[in-house]
Amino acid sequence: MAVFPVLPERLTRLYSLAYNLWWAWHPQAQALYRAIDPQVWEFTNHNAIRTLSEVRPERLQALAEDREFVASYDATLAAYDAYAMGQASTWYDMSHDHVLPGPVAYFSAEFGLHESLPIYSGGLGILAGDHNKEASDLGLPFVGVGFLYPQGYFRQRLTRTGDQEALYDRLNFADLPAEVARDPQGREVKISVDLRGRRVFARVWRFQIGRNPLFLMDTDVEENDPRDRVLSARLYGGDHDIRIAQEVVLGIGGVRALRALGIKPSVYHMNEGHAAFLGLERIRELVEGEGMSFAEAVEVVASNGVFTTHTPVPAGNDAFSFEQIVDHFADYWPRLGVSKEQFLDFARQEQSWGPSFSMTVLALRTSSKRNGVSQLHGDVSRRMWQFLWPDLDTDQVPITAITNGVHSPTWVAPSLSSLYSQYLRSDWQRHVDDPATWANLDGIPDGELWATHRRLKQDLIAYARQRIRQRDERLGEGASLLPGGREVLNPDALTIGFARRFATYKRATLLFRDRERLLRLLNIPGRPVQIAFAGKAHPADQPGQAFIREIEHYTREPEFAGKVVLLEEYDMDMARHLVQGADLWLNTPTRPYEASGTSGEKAALNGLPNCSVLDGWWAEGFNGHNGWSIGDEREYLNPETQNDADADSLYTVLERQIIPTYYEMGPDGIPHAWIKVMKEAIRTCAPRFSMSRMVKEYIERLYLPAAELGRVVSSDSYALARQLAAWKTRVRAAWPAVTVEARGPHDGQLAVNQSVDVTASVRLGGLTMRDVAVELVWGRDDNGRLRDAVVVPMTAGESLSDGRQTYTARFAPDRNGALIYGVRARPNHPALP
């Protein structure tokens, strides 16, 4: 039972405002709730609703009579009302004028919206939260679908030896801005799915994210067996059986929740493969409801499906054994009109341990728009999943790339935002993705930018010291003081930040590879350096937890004491302090395993230069002047060789470039050379790696084309879907008889732009010329592999008496070096991309 105080009449809207997470990315609103009771605000982890429920009634009455607080209250509500009622002036409506008949439905296993709602584990969830906020800011009709985990993700506690303990607290839903979701008739929405012959129910909760809703499911309801009530208890908790059950509820249950709510999406976006079962549910609806075949239904479902993959290694993609799938779906595939073998083959991926049912393959097959999350990751993804498109060259595999961005109102320090407003433009956040917004960055006086950064650094150090003291007290240890009574962390030292998931490929301990060299770097006379680490390892990730123990060990060595700190309980609040207050952001992943990474983007928005491996977003962002690179743009066959090379590069760039630049002070005591790098980081990274730019790309490159394709495929009683399915069936049957024989120069030398004629004869195997595209493909010879391919359509010539069709093409290579070429035939239909 939750008992809330009665609000004074003058402050009655504090509750309604708290139930819209708009306040979570508007500092003015956060300051309002903090002013109610700063101690309660901190104790509740900045939870607006809980702050209201725990503050004393007499305090609220006093605030109602406080002119300064009431003025802040009125100003905050005015800003909120202008936002909520300003739909017509949003970017989406001014640019696209309601072109989507229904919202984008965005499915994700986790959402990182605010530290008081701990249902996120890392970058995937933070990105999903930022995506939801930006969709609201831009005015995009958008609906989020996920889980409300009663125990959320774990809280991290570290022992004296650095062992990570995972603690789970039960969320009190009365303390959250959650309301029971209701259908158009006002009835509470509960959905159900079948799991191994059991009917499992889930309640649906509604959160308001600015202009848009987020619907989260929870299986802890009375109708369920005890084993099913805990199904949604924890994010990424439990074994593979729990995982597949969660994903059934997320995908199949999520679609059913939207149906019960009366929501008809124009586009279905799967953020990673966790939600891919939604495609099967949509297929079932069409087979059972529209009398369609499985193949026809796939065409409809894929047409307006969007899939974003975030994983650059096969092992990181969710996959289940065929036995598990049969166990969970034996009663489901007959409803799709397919056999067991057809069902399993639809998402088959061969693994070292045998065939598996891949959630990524399922998502790729039930979407028409697919993307990786950086340019490098897009290339890795095309190579990884090329086996699904064996007739296409790698660079033509239909997986594009949209590089991740970050939501500037969430991550830019308020004091720095004020500086941007003063010197750039007052509405810079509405135009963050416009390079012109940042053109006058040099107009910010170096002294003001440095003073602002110094204050943020002081805030970080005070915050870190407090967190360290709290841990010391919990462990029964004395205060973390250095000889002479000094506290840990020196405000005048170059402070390096490293905070992220402690996955092994992120190499948190790379900096310690040469202990003695690192000690020399940390102790250069007059040029001190210190490092702040933070991050969690998954409870099942023992190697990642070993990294945490190793770093904790170093923090307790006398030589490193006070210069290396490890902060426990990493969350969004700690992340903000670090990306706003450190001097330099360090990122050391093993290339190319960092799909994108966003912590460095957040740091750059706050003026922190990055020092990073050229992987993920930094492979695009680094220009030689806005930070520093570690190593080269290459991968090594031997991991130890790569570790050695990257560690040496890191030490060298710290020693020769970073540390000298930071401590190069002008006569006024300001490091102008360092500030030049800071400004270049802001100028180049703020527009390019903003969430605004990212979501606009999703809208224009993925959402709108998918919605239009969905409209065309579904029109006229799904005529095109039925036609495409029949055409593909006919082409698949005939394709084994299609043969190609090409003629052209096999070797020799050519001059640049010298023409080459190539002919081909193609046996069409009973297909028509309209069914087959014949193309000349040429490009660089990369040890027998085609690179930088150029495709030249071939022109049909005469039909030969033996049934073959001739084709010709001419190409003139515009580049020198070793080249290769070939002729290919591929299925062709006007409705295919």
SSE topology:
Elements: H1 14-18, H2 27-36, H3 38-43, H4 48-54, H5 57-64, H6 67-84, H7 91-96, E1 104-107, H8 123-138, E2 142-147, E3 155-158, E4 164-167, E5 179-180, E6 190-195, E7 198-209, E8 212-218, H9 226-229, H10 240-261, E9 267-271, H11 277-290, H12 294-303, E10 305-308, E11 319-321, H13 322-329, H14 333-336, H15 340-345, E12 348-351, E13 354-358, H16 359-365, E14 369-372, H17 375-384, E15 400-401, H18 408-411, H19 414-423, H20 446-474, E16 494-499, H21 515-522, E17 523-524, E18 527-534, H22 542-555, E19 564-567, H23 572-581, E20 584-587, H24 599-605, E21 610-613, H25 618-621, E22 627-630, H26 639-662, H27 672-688, H28 691-734, E23 739-743, E24 756-763, E25 772-782, E26 785-793, E27 795-799, E28 804-811, E29 819-827
Parallel strand pairs: 1-2, 1-9, 2-8, 9-10, 10-14, 14-15, 16-18, 16-20, 18-19, 20-21, 21-22
Antiparallel strand pairs: 3-4, 5-7, 6-7, 7-8, 11-13, 12-13, 17-18, 23-24, 24-28, 25-26, 25-29, 27-28
